[in-house]
Amino acid sequence: MNSTLKIVDSLENRVSKMLHRLEVLEQKNQQLRQELANSKEASQRLQQEISQWEEKYNSLKIANSMLGSDTNKKEAKLKINTLIRQIDHCIAQLAE
Q: Is the CA virtual torsion 36, 37, 42, 44 positive or negative?
């Protein structure tokens, strides 16, 4: 009977340790999920910031070419032609 009590006690200790480990792992998992969510938010913010800087860069490039910079004149002309075509298309749609 004594050996049975020892086995039961041993099992209780093991189950208790396993439950404690489970609780610790669940807390760690929750912490990692929160860190992942924070990282995703930061990544999205940075991606938006990159897009804004790219738009500013393109606008600046076009402005420089319109001011007489020879390096981007061709790009500026193409952009202006594209804008004119888009405006003409809009006008045509409004006229319908």
A: positive
Residue 72's pLDDT is 63
Q: How far apart are CA 73 and CA 79, in angstroms?
A: 10
Token duo for residue 56: 């500013």
Q: 65 with 75: CB under 8 angstroms? A: yes
pTM score > 0.70 for this model?
Answer: no
SS3 for 89?
helix
Question: Where are the domains positioned within the chain?
Answer: 2-95
C-beta neighbour count of 20 within 10 angstroms: 10
Question: Pick from 58, 90, 88, 92: which is nearest to 76 by CA?
Answer: 58
Q: Which of 83, 90, 85, 89 is nearest to 59 (CA)?
A: 83
Question: What whole-number distance in Å separates Cα of residue 93 and Cα of residue 87?
Answer: 10
